């Protein structure tokens, strides 16, 4: 029997061919320079095999002729416009090759990656092959790692292609195309009209990206609005003899800290008046530090970003490359528990050869092995990411990612770290304090996993019932510190938690919002943080002004869509149902958005940016400061003359002032603000955008004090007189400078009385150097 | 109609401080009888229950005689304690001073957002966002009023029945042995009755 096997990428088809053919195969060229056909015999299935591949998606979707071009139709029509799905012109040669080979084959076996996208690509392959061989039977090979045992098993026990998963991806592609295109065209045109000549390129929208941007903006605004709060705490200490000499042991107040001075002070006096402190309890017990959970894609990206300082997208790419070479298992997985039958020992055995962690692996073989912890998630598709073979000659990012995966796996297979903890509870003046000491008895997994830390702390001896006079009793103060902007790792976590994007697509969405310059990177020390650009923030704030049922910038909407996808995969909903529901939803929102787009344009960020001539609209990251960080902004108010630059400058100053050295008083890190939901989407379909628009009109810089007042379009404003009866009849005013020829002509919403000086934006309140307390009454914090 | 002597006796025994205002009590009593068609001769326990309910649900400024609860000079007193007779007060304000306003505000915002979406959640097929976030709990600071005088108090030892999440304003608390230190009063023991 002749079988045609198709993999998703050239490198995979080569690797699998090597395994199945045992190295005995013939190579043929095809019409495409990337694709080769490999022929070999596979007696285990009594077949002759031709193994070939595609290069990702074969087909692409776009609107038909009448709707493809930007100005060909009203964006609203895109929700219903016909979509044509056909072979991508770049992939024609690949498709032709498939069709030729299919003609001569008796069975088609799909070897694409085993995830939703893979099923979808598989379905595309079937569609193309059936054009020349309409009745060809189709089978699907399932595997999680490119290693001999799994590949042979997959070849000999194929399954059916999962149409439902393919449908789910189809739905996603169509939705992203329709929604993305409609909103993108609408908002780009509107912004171009409002800010004539200042908007470069396309202002794109994607149903997943936008909520990702929403997260970044939310956090930015929280950080901006942050006011440090002062708190007080009682510090109790005793100086005692230990084995190393005299040492001061400090005790922590059980109440932690209080934000009201009077109360703290009154309680402190009580403590001061007490003659001595009494040890109420001494507890000694064993404690452990748990080893990490098995590795998922999201965890890998977070760790890669935080520890290895590699962006989530690059981490995934490196992992994928390792997978294709057969070094690690399939890197797109949500599963964090291992099957009980999993063969750990042979994989541990493979790591023995490594010069660095080999000895540790040997120990595991020698009896130190302990089964990995079980997490809560199982996508029933792939196991947690683990190393499948030892890799010797890796370099750069791949090497570091492989090392992380290997160490993590070995740590999972080790024992938890063991320690001995002593807690001493003390009472003084009616208040409770405690101190803890730790001795690390067995490091176990910590020896192979240097990314976790556990240090011991010695505590002098205390006896229960003992009294002592504290050597130090002080009322100390501190200030809450500003929360940080999101790091990429944070954003990955947020998106995952809120169901935006899948483990495979999250990194792409993040890369997109950065590519489109909605989000910029800001370095602080060695950590990279994400801040919104003017454009990004304006869009989010603007859309938030519009009263949608479900906000575009919050995750609920996208989460619903993602869940619908899962429903399609499980067979609870059909592709048609989901498409209909979701399109209907977004269609309504589109109308609302379009009718109220003026609110987006009038958002303060845009207004002040307009005055600046949009210098910062697509600004690259804030000016890098290699010099020592600037001092925090002085407490004096800014002069009113520099008023128009305030908003923007203030925004960047805040972002920059995070470089300032920490204040001298001890700080309490503010609790991380609760994760806010957000959604984002990718635009997969091609969007034919207009060619580049004329760049920034430099003549419109407002630094030269304008004696010509200009409207939002950039034209000189026209002076008119109020005709309507009322208190202002006859009063002169300035309106949009764009001449209105037809009644429907759009003009900007600029307005200013001509007989008054122009309104000024109030100067931003400077950040006080001293801590401030909220002045609203305590009841403001009440539950509703 | 003046209230039945049993009612007066019951209130004098259970709510001596502050004293119930006669006019308020009379209209309350009449309302209770009329609304539920109760007869003093046979439904006395029911009447007492309802009157008590009304009392605990009322604003003490309306239902109590002025200056019959907390001592007028309690705010100035440096140190001391209230006596053994429990004083009924209502909570007019509550906040948590062990956590920053920032963290409290964040939780509040989450609760608002969650409430906004509550209606939509059913349409979306019952989204499981997890339980409603609770306010972090350290030390509550309250303002208590007996209808005339308001004092500030803190929760010296934890009182689990009071929470920022659920305790409504106007919640009635009976104070026993209130310790006072300088400006603030520290509550050492308490005994509360549920109320609206």
Give the structure's gist in a few sentences.
The complex is a heterodimer of chains A (784) and B (196). Chain A is of the alpha+beta class and 784 residues long. Chain A has 21 helices and 22 strands.
Explain this structure to me?
Chain A: This is DNA topoisomerase. Chain A: It comes from Vararia minispora EC-137. The complex is a heterodimer of chains A (784) and B (196). By secondary structure, chain A is of the alpha+beta class. Chain A has 5 domains: 2-161, Rossmann fold; 170-226 and 484-605, Topoisomerase I, domain 2 (Orthogonal Bundle), CATH 1.10.460; 230-291 and 417-479, Topoisomerase I, domain 3 (Distorted Sandwich), CATH 2.70.20; 304-412, Topoisomerase I, domain 4 (Orthogonal Bundle), CATH 1.10.290; 630-762, no CATH class. Chain A has 21 helices and 22 strands. The longest helix of chain A has 32 residues, at 163-194. Chain A is flat, with a radius of gyration of 32 Å. Chain B is an alpha+beta fold and 196 residues long. Chain B is 34% helix and 22% strand. Chain B has a 5-stranded mixed barrel with strand order 2-3-4-6-5. In chain B, 32% of the residues are buried. Residues 182-186 and 188-196 of chain B have low confidence and may be disordered. The chains are: A alpha+beta (784), B alpha+beta (196). Chains A and B meet through helix 8 and helix 17 of A and strand 2 and helix 5 of B.
Largest interface: A-B, 35 and 45 residues
CATH architecture of the largest domain in chain A: Orthogonal Bundle
Strand order of the largest sheet of chain B: 2-3-4-6-5
What integer value in Å does the Rg of chain A equal?
A: 32 Å
Low-confidence stretches of chain B: 182-186, 188-196
